[in-house]
Structure formats: C-alpha cells, structure tokens
Amino acid sequence: MKKIISAAVAALMLTGAVFAAPKVRVGVSMPTKSLQRWNQDGNNMAKELKKAGYVVDLQYANNDIAMQTQQIENMLTKGDKILVIASIDGSALKGVLDTAKKQGVKVIAYDRLIMNSDAVSYYATFDNYKVGTIQGNYLVEKLKLNSRTNKDPAYIEFFTGSPDDNNINFFFGGAMDVLTPYLKSGVLVCRSGQTSKAQCATLNWSTEAAQKRMENLITAQKYGPNGTKLDAVYSSNDSCANGITNALVGAGYTAKNFPIVTGQDCDKPSVKNMIAGLQAMSVFKDTRTLASQVVKMVDAIAKGTQPPINDKKTYDNGTGIIPSFLCEPVYGDKDNYKALLLDSGYYTAADLQ
Q1: How far is CA 10 from the centre of its chain?
Q2: Three-state secondary structure of 239-272
Q3: Could you tell me the sign of the dihedral formed by the alpha carbons of 87, 93, 94, 98, in that order?
Q4: What is the pTM of this model?
Q5: Cα-flanking dihedrals φ and ψ of residue 172, to 5°?
Q6: Average model confidence (pLDDT) across the chain
Q7: Could you read off the pLDDT tens digit of each residue along the chain, which spans 353 residues?
Q8: Disulfide-capable partner of 163 in 102, 201, 257, 312 (CB 3.0 to 4.6 Å)?
Q9: What would the 3-class secondary structure string for 24-83 be?
C-alpha cells in the first residue's frame, strides 16, 4: 500500500499536479480613505498584488493611530508575511513593528518613512526632495524672480503638511532651498514672516485647517484683489491647496487675479481648479508607478532575493539608512494636464467635469 501511495505522489509531482504552496499574504495599511490619493494608492497596489498571485489584506485607518496599530496587529495574527505601510504618524508604530520583526515579517514603508524602527526593511516613495524643488522652481519661473529686484518684489505665503509626516522635511526643504535665496535678497517677501516649517505646518494635511489659517492671514495682512498684494501661496500638497483656494475665493479672488498656488498629487478637485484658473500647478506622482514598484519589491522579498533599490543614502529613520526606491515626480498644470492625466488613462474626461 505504501508503495502505491508513494508512486501516486511521484506521478502527481511529475505531472505538476502536486498541491500548490499556500499563497503569500501581504498586508497593506493605508492611513485614510478621506484623501483621494490614498484610495488610489491602496486600490492600485491591491490590484497589482492580486494579479501577481498574492493574498491581499488592505486596510484603511481613518487617520486614527490606534486603529492603524490594531489593524497591523490583526494582520500579524492572520499570518501576513509582508507588510506595506503608509503610516499616519511615522513615529508611532515601533511597538507593533517590533512584534513584526520577531515574527520575521518584512516591512516596506510606503511613501511616508516610518521612523525609529529597525523593523523597516525598505522604503518605496517618490523623490520627495525633488517634489519640493519642482514646486520652488515653478514659482521662480512664474513669478519671474530672476528678473525682479527688491524694489519690485513678489509676495508669498507658505503652507506645508503635517508635522508628524517625515516627508514634509523633503517637500518643504526642497522648496525652501530654491526660494530662500530670493527671500534673503528681498526679491521674494513673506509679509507674515511665517517661513519656518513649524509655522507653516498643517496638522493631518487638513483642508479645513489650511483654509482657516489662510483666512487668518488674509485678515491679518489685509490680502485681497483690492487690498494688499499677494502673488503666490506655496502649498506642499493638494489637500492644503484646496483649503487655501477656498479662502482666496472667499476673499474675492477670481481666475483673473488669482495668486499662484502650488500643490501635489493632482487630486481631482485640484485638477478642476487648475482648469478653472484657481490653482496653478500640482506635482503628479503616478500611483500606478509606485504600486508596480512595490509589487516588484514584494516579489523579491517573497523569493528571497534583493528588491530593486536606487537610493542608499537619503533616508535615515533614526536607526540607520533605509534602502529605498525613489520614483520620479513631474508637474501638471493647465497647459499639460490633458497629456499627463487624460491621455495616460489616469483620469477620464468625465472625472474632471
């Protein structure tokens, strides 16, 4: 009987009909559904991972740190072997990730670097410093700062994102590296004097918080189409830009006299604002590109090989340099959004109606 069973197993193996190994489980933890870009990131990644044969556990944490921690704990309990995490607070996950490391689970920090945890194996993001320099250089060009003098300065205010998001160091840092020389020469002037990261931060990247701060600046500085001159507002991303735009519209600005407002993510409301002349530009980070890159990293980890990496010097999370892959950002504006967003299939024309 034993010989018969052995022969049957051997035959199954020879014909390729032996039972398949269990599929690798991948946990994907996104911060919130309230921002369009995280919905797209999560859905694109889940689609790509499922297509590659993985079991995907996609969770959104409603911008609640305790909820994200609990969701990751549940992923570990269910046997997820690889975690892809876009953190709410980059410094709040050390405890649960210590558990992941003990269980041999590999962690990929997604777009936001997870800080102070040696459980982070890799980081996948866009070149976030370049995002800031793109925004800064756009302002230099559109405000004609290289041909101005301090007798005819351009006037600007500054907004960046949440102080618990490590990325603002790169977004805001890149932009300010470009713009600081013009501020020092007096060619560019911030009337409020609020130019430090702490002064310009927006908790949770909140549209409402950005709108309230912009309204306060408008009141304090008497900005308006018939008031004190305001040429531009630097915004690190679109959710802040939307709040800024709301406040400027409320102050009476129209497409004919709207200050130059920057952004990031090419979210639908911001693209519509660009078309309407109420936002100048937004840095485009194609989530399909990043999702595909993460799938390659997950594949390599699952196969025990080295994931593709193109940066080993930039991102130190407090425990050492995290091997990273940086995708390339570009900017969209009213002149190129059709080729960038519609022709590429990222959006349909109906999405932007």
Answers
A1: 51
A2: HHHHHHHHHHHHCCCCCCCCCEECCECCCHHHHH
A3: negative
A4: 0.83
A5: -70, -40
A6: 93
A7: 444 444 444 444 444 443 344 689 999 999 999 888 899 899 999 999 999 999 999 999 999 999 999 999 999 999 999 999 999 998 999 999 999 999 999 999 999 999 999 999 999 999 999 999 999 999 999 999 999 999 999 999 999 999 989 999 999 999 999 999 999 999 999 999 999 999 999 999 999 999 999 999 999 999 999 999 999 999 999 999 999 999 999 999 999 999 999 999 999 999 999 999 999 999 999 988 998 999 999 999 999 999 999 999 999 999 999 999 999 999 999 999 999 999 999 999 999 99
A8: 201
A9: CEEEEEECCCCCHHHHHHHHHHHHHHHHCCCEEEEEECCCCHHHHHHHHHHHHHCCCCEE
Q: How far apart are alpha carbons 190 and 179 in whole angstroms?
A: 11
Q: Which residues are 154's β-sheet partners?
A: 188
Q: Which two tokens stand for residue 203?
A: 């908790």
CB 331 within 8 A of CB 282: yes
Q: Give the residue carrying structure tokens 């425990």.
A: 319
Assigned token pair, 9: 């197993």
Identity of the residue numbered 295: V
Report whether 166 contacts 113 (CB < 8 A): yes
State the distance between the two ends of the chain, measured CA to CA, in whole angstroms: 71
Query: How far is Cα 339 from Cα 259, in angstroms, rounded to an integer?
Result: 25
Residue 264 β-bridge partners: 283
